[in-house]
Structure formats: C-alpha cells, structure tokens
Amino acid sequence: MAIEAWFMDDSNEDPRLPHYSNPNEFVSMDLLAELGVLYWKLNPNDYENDEELKKIRETRGYNYMDLLDLCPEKVQNYEQKLKNFYTEHIHQDEEIRYCLEGSGYFDVRDKDDRWIRIWIKAGDLIILPAGIYHRFTLDTSNYVKLMRLFMGEPVWTPYNRPQEEHPARKEYIKSLTAKTAMPLAAH
C-alpha cells in the first residue's frame, strides 16, 4: 500500500490529529514526486538484511545511519523537541527517514504554499529534498522509531522559515520551476 497524504485544514488543534481538509482532499504519489518527495515501502522487520535498503543507501550515498525512538519515555525534553520538529524549516541536505515502528506525520508545502500531511508508518522510507519547507510531529500514538540516514557526517541544522535566500531553498525553487514534470514515481 502506498503512503497516505492529504491537504491539511487550517485548524490550530492538536497537531497530532490528522487535520483532514473538509471535504477530504487526498494527494497522489505523483504530486509528491513533483515536489521532489521520494518514497519506498520496505520491510521494517528485517532492515539489517534488506537488499533494497542496501541498494538505496549505496545508490544515494547514505553511509551514516542511526536510530531514534521518539516517545515521552525515551527522549529528554520530549515536549520541547517535538515543538522544535514541528516548527516549519528547511535543511541544506535531504532529510531521509525510514519508519521502523509506530507512526507520525511529515508536513510539506506544495507549490501554492499549502500544507500536505504525509502519514508515515512502519515500512515507509521517505526522502524530503533539500530546501523544501517541512515539519514533523507524532500522531496520537505518541511513538515512532525512525532510522535516520545521511551522506557523510550527520547535520541536523534546521533553518526556520523564512529562508528564501538560503542556497538550498533557491536551488529547490529552481528545480521546481525548471521542469514541467518530474518522471519520478513511488518505488
């Protein structure tokens, strides 16, 4: 099954709620691909031996990996960290997350600056392009175990919005306007 994504409502209620628009307006994998968001469905129960994951890591140059258990019991300053993750930002590099257990939401901005909510669950590997405005929060399960992948040494520096002059943001906008269609699809 492909990942679920939809346009969000404008409510300020608990960010861990789904925030479906009314009426619901689901987002296709093609639209996510146009925004540069990549997706794979993998087997989270055997990630140490997953040949497809090894191939992705080799092809894309992800030579660093760590695991993050995000829940109130395992993270110091949990509420503050979750608040920081939910602050709209960009990174100068891709953000690669592989959900091994639990679930959560990545929100990304579309070309018209509307929020798209992407619900990741166990087995979902998602790549957000450098320069895309995004944020993350848990859903009401309050738990996710993520594999974080990087090229080289990990850099977790968020650049909070506005960042229109940041080189990664400029390059991202250029990539959106330079192509009429992106021939990438879900894997």
From TrEMBL:
> Where is this protein primarily located?
membrane
Q: Does the keyword Chaperone apply?
A: no
What are the EC numbers? 1.13.11.54, 1.13.11.53
Renumbered to this chain, the signal peptide range is none
Q: Which cofactor does it need?
A: Fe(2+); Ni(2+)
> Which residues hold Ni(2+)?
89, 91, 95, 134
What is one GO cellular-component annotation here?
plasma membrane
The family database entries (InterPro entries) matched by this protein are listed as: ARD (IPR004313), ARD_euk (IPR027496), RmlC-like_jellyroll (IPR014710), RmlC_Cupin_sf (IPR011051)
Membrane topology, from the record: Peripheral membrane protein
Keyword annotations from UniProtKB, A to Z? Amino-acid biosynthesis, Cytoplasm, Dioxygenase, Iron, Metal-binding, Methionine biosynthesis, Nickel, Nucleus, Oxidoreductase
Q: Which residues bind Fe(2+)?
A: 89, 91, 95, 134
Pathway where it operates: Amino-acid biosynthesis; L-methionine biosynthesis via salvage pathway; L-methionine from S-methyl-5-thio-alpha-D-ribose 1-phosphate: step 5/6
As recorded in UniProt, coiled-coil segments are none
Q: Which Pfam families match?
A: ARD (PF03079)
Compartments, as annotated in UniProt: Cell membrane; Cytoplasm; Nucleus
Catalysed reaction, written as an equation: 1,2-dihydroxy-5-(methylsulfanyl)pent-1-en-3-one + O2 = 3-(methylsulfanyl)propanoate + CO + formate + 2 H(+); 1,2-dihydroxy-5-(methylsulfanyl)pent-1-en-3-one + O2 = 4-methylsulfanyl-2-oxobutanoate + formate + 2 H(+)
The record's cofactor note says: Binds either 1 Fe or Ni cation per monomer. Iron-binding promotes an acireductone dioxygenase reaction producing 2-keto-4-methylthiobutyrate, while nickel-binding promotes an acireductone dioxygenase reaction producing 3-(methylsulfanyl)propanoate.
Q: Which GO terms describe its molecular function?
A: acireductone dioxygenase (Ni2+-requiring) activity; acireductone dioxygenase [iron(II)-requiring] activity; iron ion binding; nickel cation binding
GO BP field: L-methionine salvage from methylthioadenosine
The UniProt entry's sequence similarity note says:
Belongs to the acireductone dioxygenase (ARD) family.
What is known about what this protein does?
Catalyzes 2 different reactions between oxygen and the acireductone 1,2-dihydroxy-3-keto-5-methylthiopentene (DHK-MTPene) depending upon the metal bound in the active site. Fe-containing acireductone dioxygenase (Fe-ARD) produces formate and 2-keto-4-methylthiobutyrate (KMTB), the alpha-ketoacid precursor of methionine in the methionine recycle pathway. Ni-containing acireductone dioxygenase (Ni-ARD) produces methylthiopropionate, carbon monoxide and formate, and does not lie on the methionine recycle pathway.
What protein does this entry describe?
A: Acireductone dioxygenase
The source organism is: Senna tora
Query: Lineage in the entry?
Result: Eukaryota, Viridiplantae, Streptophyta, Embryophyta, Tracheophyta
